[in-house]
Amino acid sequence: MKKLTGIFSALLVSYNEDGSINEKGLRQIIRYNIDKMKVDGLYVGGSTGENFMLSTKEKKEIFRIAKDEAKDQVGLIAQVGSVNLHEAIELGKYATELGYDCLSAVTPFYYKFSFAEIKHYYDKIIAETGNNMIVYSIPFLTGVNMGISQFGELYQNPKILGVKFTAGDFYLLERLKKSYPDRLIWAGFDEMMLPAVSLGVDGAIGSTFNVNGIRARQIFNLTKAGKLEEALEIQHVTNDLIEGILANGLYLTIKELLKLEGVDAGFCREPMTAKATEEQLSVAKKLKEKYLS
Ligand code: NGF
Q1: Element housing 32 (H / E)
Q2: Fewer CB in a 10 Å sphere around the end CB: N or C, the chain?
Q3: What's the predicted TM-score (pTM) here?
Q4: Which family does it belong to (predicted)?
Q5: Is-contact 173 199, C-beta < 8 A?
Q6: Is 119 marked active-site?
Q7: What is the mean pLDDT of each run of 10 residues along the chain (293 residues)?
Q8: 191 lines ligand 1 (CB under 6 A)
């Protein structure tokens, strides 16, 4: 198994204007991440991949292309979570057969599942696939908030390696690190990387690493080394960039930034706005000139 710590890009997917997968463009995004952003790995099938708007067949196709392009060059995590447990298991088996190093699954969302149901969901995906698992916790999108004791119950399953923590609750983050030192934490909010790393996270998984991966690694390494002032300087620049990206449309703007680097990052998938307006393109160009040249 490849190392799963460090800097992992939440992989963007290139779509054609009709919403179909642009394989050539997806391969270019993967190459850019590995060759230029020098990431330690890829988180495939996450929010950033616009995954929750895709069919099972399309999700599998993206897993296949990503593995085929990345081969064993970097760590590969497959996000297989779905509110349809049968789909999550099918995807988990598929990614495991392809050779993904680990699975991850978003907490089941939309319905108000009980904690017992959430635990059953993880235990069942793991039992059916035999692979290791990273819990994907993103309460602001799922509405699922788990506390310290609930993580402890999930961690009774030894195949759960830890959590991708996309939240700003640093008290919970610190409690998790202290209570379960043998479990890993991946920071999920790129704009909060410095405080998350200072609290001891083991890795970070982020959308903006697709274009800002070099700075992300600098923040990670400098903070780990205790060089907080230097890390903060880079976090400030990073957050100026992220602020601009968020205000202009998150995935759409990262795609436009990649296109300015010659990567065919394509369109977004409807019902997200598929195509950037002239104004959005112009903002992307300014962001590129100011922060990525
Ligand atoms: O895009 C989101 C959700 N969050 C990502 C990341 O946590 C998602 C984060 O990088 C991810 O890893 C995935 O693809 O599943 C943010 O985009 C970034 O910090 C800007 O807020 O909205």
Answers
A1: none
A2: C
A3: 0.98
A4: Belongs to the DapA family. NanA subfamily.
A5: yes
A6: no
A7: 95 98 98 98 98 98 98 98 98 98 97 97 98 98 96 98 97 98 98 98 98 98 98 98 98 98 98 97 98 96
A8: yes
